[in-house]
């Protein structure tokens, strides 16, 4: 079993460790969105088309989701610091490779490997925090990592616009190289493992889970992209069927990828499910707003992102304080209240019309940002506090998996909803900011957007109910620092 390697050296390095983790998460988060505003430039430079280039962002989300639990478990067995530090190296190398990619296909392939590095960091960062900090400081620590993830997602859009406009799209990848090199040196110095578990790795279980998730998520994206056809349905069915042998494999294997007994803990189960439904609801709203601002109001992708930025900044600033509050009073009520505040913020968006002031977006964004600051650190803290000490990496990976499924699901929901009002090709062009709606189609899209908000709010209501009924964190299995 991995010991409290980070703690044995005392707490003087806590802030340095947290700084390295936050920068790593920030870097991985930025690259999940930084390509959004660069699609037109990349398409032109690489002589590609939108249906191909869209996979530059989709492959990142797909690989991150599939690899999360795998690298979380590997971190439990071979050292979380080893996997996190290796992730920095992989991410940095393939950021450079993305920058020099000569074709659209090679760029997509390199983005896949870059995402592997991001998954290695994201799936082990939460476990390293659980090993490093005293239980009563976990919420505060997760507040800072939540700040890194959420600020990074929106900062990626802004940086993508600035760098692509004034320097060139290749530098959205090159910018990671010097940061990654410095981060790697700091990580090697401050984030270390003194021991590791001696268990057999469940390679067959990892393969079954990886293929199953890949098939399900890939088919979902394809159905949203090109519609229902026999091949997409077949891939989707195969993906779900593969979950059966994975389930029975995990039941009998001594050291499974996912210890199914973890889900018997109501706090853990409800918290990871709340993360998934929160992602389904909230990220779907953000995607839809981007399409509204670009397609209906005619704003550039960069200007549209600036209207959403204040909410993310507010969330980032408040997250550490809310995390500290959850340490003192518990995660359940704080996280649940945060979700209902996010719902309140979305209700504001119903005032948006084809001619309304766009500053309504600023108000809604500020309210949802405040709610997000309450939810993310509290929910993450609840997951880790309810996990077994030897399974922190697995727990962190599962949390990232369910969150990533939520984000990918939200993308699918938004594209499918948009295609009810406008042609599918036009929905993709609006999403990346290369087209604008005109005439009666604009009214149809706004009505469809309002309908989608109802569905997305329903997702957040489910998340709130899961959060409210999770119970209080039980630290019986947690190592008291």
Question: What does this protein look like?
Answer:
It contains 20 helices and no strands. The radius of gyration is 21 Å and the shape is globular. The chain folds into 2 domains: 402 residues, MFS general substrate transporter like domains (Growth Hormone, Chain: A, Up-down Bundle), CATH 1.20.1250; 53 residues, no CATH class. With 481 residues, it is mainly alpha-helical.
Assembly category: single chain
Judged by helices, strands and strand pairing, the structural class is mainly alpha
Which stretches are low in confidence, meaning pLDDT under 50 for 5 or more residues running?
Answer: 1-11, 475-481
CATH fold description of the largest domain: Growth Hormone, Chain: A
Distance between the termini: 16 Å
Profile the largest sheet. none
Quick one: how many beta strands? 0
Mean pLDDT metric? 83
The CATH class of the largest domain is identified as: Mainly Alpha
Number of domains: 2
What are the key terms here?
77% helix, Growth Hormone, Chain: A, 481 residues, mainly alpha, disordered N terminus
Summed up, what is this model?
The chain has two domains: 5-192 and 255-468, MFS general substrate transporter like domains (Growth Hormone, Chain: A); 202-254, no CATH class. It has 481 residues and is mainly alpha-helical.
């Amino acid at each position: 079993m991995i010991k409290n390697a980070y703690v044995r050296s005392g707490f003087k390095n806590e802030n340095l460790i947290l700084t390295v983790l936050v920068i790593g998460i920030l870097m991985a988060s930025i690259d999940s969105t930084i390509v959004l505003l660069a699609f037109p430039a990349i398409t032109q430079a690489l002589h590609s088309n939108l249906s191909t280039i869209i996979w530059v962002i989709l492959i990142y989300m797909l690989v991150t989701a599939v690899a999360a639990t795998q690298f979380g478990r590997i971190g439990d067995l071979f050292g979380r610091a080893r996997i996190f530090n290796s992730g920095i190296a992989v991410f940095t190398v393939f950021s450079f490779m993305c920058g020099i990619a000569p074709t659209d296909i090679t760029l997509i392939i390199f983005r896949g490997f870059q995402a592997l590095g991001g998954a290695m960091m994201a799936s082990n960062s939460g476990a390293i925090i659980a090993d490093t900090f005293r239980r009563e400081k976990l919420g505060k620590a997760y507040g800072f990592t939540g700040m890194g993830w959420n600020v990074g997602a929106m900062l990626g859009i802004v940086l993508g616009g600035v760098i692509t406009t004034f320097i060139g799209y290749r530098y959205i990848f090159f910018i990671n190289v010097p940061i990654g090199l410095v981060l790697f040196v700091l990580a090697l110095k401050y984030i270390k493992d003194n021991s590791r578990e001696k268990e057999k790795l469940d390679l067959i279980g990892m393969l079954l889970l990886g293929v199953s998730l890949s098939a399900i998520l890939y088919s979902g994206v394809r159905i949203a992209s090109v519609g229902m056809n026999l091949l997409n349905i077949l891939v989707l069915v195969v993906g779900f069927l593969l979950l059966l042998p994975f389930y029975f494999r995990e039941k009998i294997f001594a050291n499974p990828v996912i210890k199914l007994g973890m889900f018997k803990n109501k706090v853990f189960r409800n918290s990871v499910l709340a993360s998934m439904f929160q992602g389904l609801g909230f990220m779907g709203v953000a995607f839809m707003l981007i399409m509204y601002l670009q397609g209906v109001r005619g704003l550039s992708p960069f200007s549209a992102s600036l209207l959403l930025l204040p909410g993310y900044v507010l969330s980032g600033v408040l997250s550490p304080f809310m995390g500290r509050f959850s340490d003192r009073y518990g995660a359940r009520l704080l996280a649940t209240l945060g979700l209902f505040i996010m719902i309140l913020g979305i209700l504001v968006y119903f005032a948006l019309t084809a001619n309304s002031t766009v500053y309504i977006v600023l108000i809604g964004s500020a309210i949802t940002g405040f709610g997000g600051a309450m939810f993310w650190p509290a929910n993450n803290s609840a997951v880790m506090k309810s996990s077994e000490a030897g399974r922190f990496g697995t727990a962190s990976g599962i949390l990232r998996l369910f969150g990533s499924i939520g984000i990918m699901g939200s993308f699918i929901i938004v594209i499918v909803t948009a295609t009810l009002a406008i042609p599918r090709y036009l929905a993709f062009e609006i999403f990346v900011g290369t087209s604008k709606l005109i005439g009666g189609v604009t009214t149809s899209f706004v009505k469809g957007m309002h309908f989608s908000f109802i569905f997305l709010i329903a997702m957040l209501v489910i998340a709130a109910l899961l959060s409210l009924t999770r119970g209080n964190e039980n630290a019986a299995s947690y190592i008291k620092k």
